[in-house]
Amino acid sequence: MATAPIGVLGGTFDPVHYGHLRLAQELGELLRLDEVRLVPSGTPPHRGAPDVAGEHRLAMARLAAQGNARLKVEDREVRRAGPAYTFDTLEELRAEAGGTRPLVLLVGADAFLEFATWHRWHEIFGLAHVVVAHRPGFPVGRWSERMPQPLAREYSARLMQQPLAVHLSPAGGVVAAAITALDISATAIRDMLRAGRSPRYLLPDSVLDYIQTHRLYS
């Protein structure tokens, strides 16, 4: 059985785009992850309801992941009744993976600044490592000063200098990793579609074809 870490990338994926996919690809390679699970959220607790239903966002994620053996798409949050908490997802994955296999939660830098507002955020470190993706040249030192004190303390205490250190323990570390800066947002894509403009080359053609076939975001 493979023992390399499993990456977990959650989000509304409303719609999934190349920013999401490039983050998964680069961190999968950098951290030598066995796989990266894309987990479209059901009812996100931190924001309004997604523009389109979970089954559409799940279908788009599956289309986007086709042809990449490292990417797997999870439907557990779409199927879950009630709020889709990351803690609950990681708890389920930990039970399935066993106590020793590393789990790695992949998040963007902006999302990590809000990490201390997440449900049972402190306990997430007991379930997985947290890898924070940021832009090249990003002033990580000054960025940590923007964190609330409880999160800054955890960040400082748990920071790993070597990304591959996530292989050495099942959970508990934090890694800051620079990835290619792609200024793509799902909000901008939705706005383009509503305005009758094409977001082609911001997301896979298969996803755009799905959006057009099902007349999403119009």
Topology diagram in text:
Layout lengths: L5 E6 L6 H13 L4 E6 L13 H12 L5 E3 L2 H4 L6 H12 L5 E6 H5 L7 H4 L4 E6 L5 H6 L3 H10 L15 E5 L7 H9 L10 H9 L5
Parallel strand pairs: 1-2, 1-4, 2-3, 4-5, 5-6
Helix pairs in contact: 2-10
Characterization of the model:
With 218 residues, the protein is of the alpha/beta class. The chain has a single domain (6-212), classed as HUPs (Rossmann fold, 3-Layer(aba) Sandwich), CATH 3.40.50. 39% of the residues lie in helices and 15% in strands. It is built from ten helices and six strands; from the N terminus they run E-H-E-H-E-H-H-E-H-H-E-H-H-E-H-H. A six-stranded parallel beta sheet has the order 3-2-1-4-5-6. The N and C termini lie far apart (46 Å).
Give a brief outline of the structure:
This protein is α/β, with parallel strands linked by helices. The protein contains 10 helices and 6 strands, in the order βαβαβααβααβααβαα.
The top-level CATH class is Alpha Beta
Unreliable parts:
none
Structural class: alpha/beta
Strand content: 5-15%
Q: State the shape.
A: globular
In which range does the helix fraction lie?
25-40%
The major β-sheet equals: 6 strands, parallel
Write the H/E string, N to C: EHEHEHHEHHEHHEHH
Strand order of the largest sheet: 3-2-1-4-5-6
The first-to-last residue Cα distance is 46 Å
Return Rg in Å.
Answer: 17 Å
Q: Number of helical segments?
A: 10
Mean pLDDT: 94
The tally of beta strands, per DSSP, is 6
Examine the coordinates and then state which fold CATH places here, giving the name of the CATH topology: Rossmann fold
The CATH homologous superfamily is called HUPs
User: What is the CATH architecture term?
Assistant: 3-Layer(aba) Sandwich
Q: What's the structural domain tally? A: 1
